[in-house]
């Protein structure tokens, strides 16, 4: 059997809702969509798992990991702001006469090389 045609998500969603509500059987939905009954069963399973994860909150994440993610996002923003401020300070310092490192001029003799 060849690969089934790719159906839009809305069509899959409609079929799965009709199967879950009892309006259609999986076999009837498969015939209507010209796909295998296994495909309809997989879509139904994915639909139910997605609903379960959605009810768990934050797309399936528990509240502890959701708060940790929010904390890390806030910390990331703070660190980016600090890096930006330090970059500006560094640019100001490098342009001032005080911040310039003297560059040696003339003949430079390399130090003794150690093998």
From TrEMBL:
Residues 15-59 form the Insertion element IS150 protein InsJ-like helix-turn-helix domain. Coiled coil: none annotated. It holds the Pfam family HTH_28. One of its GO terms (molecular function) is sequence-specific DNA binding. InterPro entries: InsJ-like_HTH (IPR055247), Trp_repressor/repl_initiator (IPR010921), WH-like_DNA-bd_sf (IPR036388). This is Transposase.
């Amino acid at each position: 059997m060849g690969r089934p045609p790719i159906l839009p998500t809305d069509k899959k969603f409609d079929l799965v809702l009709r199967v879950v509500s009892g309006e259609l059987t999986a076999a009837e939905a498969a015939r209507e969509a010209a796909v295998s009954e296994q495909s309809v069963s997989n879509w139904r399973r994915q639909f139910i798992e997605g609903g379960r994860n959605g009810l768990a909150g934050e797309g399936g994440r528990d509240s502890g990991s959701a708060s940790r993610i929010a904390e890390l996002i806030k910390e990331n923003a703070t660190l980016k702001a600090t890096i930006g401020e330090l970059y500006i300070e560094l640019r100001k310092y490098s342009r001032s006469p005080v911040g310039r490192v003297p560059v040696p001029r003339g003949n430079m003799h390399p130090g003794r090389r150690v093998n």
